[in-house]
Amino acid sequence: MEYQPELAVQSYSRCPCDAMNATTTSPCNESVHGKQGWLTGLVNMPIDIIAEIISHLLPIEVIYLSRLNKLFRNMLMHRSSIYIWHRSMKNVSGLLPCPPDMSEPSYLVLVFLKECTKCGNFARAKVDVELRARLCGACRNEHLIPIEEVPDSIRSRVRCSTHIIVPEHELLFDRYALRDEALRMEAEHNEMTRPGHETAQVFWILEGLNKTRLRQTGDALLTKFLHRLDDEREKEIKGIFELRRSEIKYRLKKMGRAEEDIPSDFGSEYYYEWNTLVNQPESLTDQTWADLQPNLIPILDGSRAERLAKERKERGLGRQERLERFLIGIRDKLDFPLTVQVRESGIFPDSTSAYPQMSNHNVFPSLGHTLAMPLVKELYQTDSTPEEMQAKLEKHREAIETLIIEWKSKVQGHFINQAAAHGTMLHPTLTSYDGSPEPFIALPDDTKRLLRADSTFHCPFSRTSPRLPRAYTNLITFGGLSYRLLTHELAPKSLNLDNISWYPEAHEVAKALLTSMGKPDVSFMEIRGFPLENIYMCGRCHDATPYTWQEMVQHYVGQKQICSKVRADLEGVPEAGIVHNDIHDPAFNTDLPMIKYYVESTRASGTDASPHELRQREFYKKLSHAREVIERTSLLVDA
């Protein structure tokens, strides 16, 4: 609510809750003469007038007045003054009459003061209506006993509580009685059970039953009243808090402080400290404000800095989202969509079905690469609202599109130039598995060259990564050269393609493998296999390991390198007369295919033995006929 200064000087209407929040320290020990200054007029009045004035007070005020000095104590605690207590009780709406087993002062202290019934110290606990007591922690342990310890003969006459907890017996008992009441009731029972008291014992039992019935009715009504009193107290305290907060906000506003600087978020590191200082159940005086203000200023300054940092972060996230959507729009405009049929058996005709998949063949700068462009970097890093940045992006759309086109051309140009630098001219011919060029007609020639299955590059992703031929689509995907929405690189990232190089040996092998299968111009996407890519195995040697297309190519490259080393070693010993034949050489005269479909070879074996074991058996079987292929002048070694 809005604070109004003119309301601050008005006092609250008196109600029981006001006095309950005040100190309970009794001033009885102070000298009567020390109070005569302001009590002189009241003391000199006739007793009837004094009684009439006091009868208009609230019960809590009468209690404090009775503790003020001996004069008022002697007057108010005398039996003749009971009408004063009764009239003051009528000033509280809904207050029940005093129970017959309690005096009016004791009853009102129990209801309105947070004071231990036994020791008189402060007690935070609520009233236990069943015991007609409010006990502090120490008195609970001292004055309560489990009802199980009360003799059975008097247990029904002793009041017990089911709402109180004694830590020492929390796990053993759940009902407790007052020790002194149990002892008193036991003494009465012993007296009544003496010989000659049979009639009195009957009346004593009937009286107990009647008191129990009346007490239960009164307990229910008193509980209802105390609940209402607690609700009123809570509302009053909330009102005090709200008025105090409003007045503090009003004074801060007059000082030029913005309401946004006030900590309002639970996650703020200043929220708890602010609420501890502000949410106090007391009015805000000038002196209180003078003491409070120096403690609030650092909190407001810190909260303001925290809020501004949070707003900057939110604006940055908003600009990032707008920039991503802006780049996606440009990407969709510049990209050439392509859907290819990925086959289960790759280059072999054994597939029962094909899976249409979108090809990730378009290069596009990531967010980090885009932020390396000075124009985009300036628009993004300027601390503006997302809407302002988007308006500037649209204003410079044409220039940004030109920068992105240049970036794309530079990336593709690097791949094409790497092949040309090794004397390789890739043909812009690209066909699907069935020989149709239709899916690739709309693609630029350079893109067709790079998507060929024999376009092989080398790029070590790490020092420990094996040397494998990499396809163009693999490199742009894992090298961060194809825009991904989830790649949030907020730091500018310059374009570096120095680690990508042409792999001529792998290119020659891939071209030979494709030619041997009659698919020289097929794309890499169609022959990689799906959902499994390890579908190829060598058709020339005993190695029956399932390979991916890249691994199959690297297998042949490795075998060629091994053959070259062996021949070099044999040239050093010409007198040995040993000739080394490379069975992996496409020109080597053999009926064995260069590449096999792994799944097909496994099915054709018709046995539980693995293809590797079958190849080993065939190899050792041929060893027994080795003399048939050994000439007298030379030893032919196939590898």
TrEMBL record:
Residues 39-88 form the F-box domain. PROSITE patterns: FBOX. This is F-box domain-containing protein. It comes from Rhizoctonia solani.
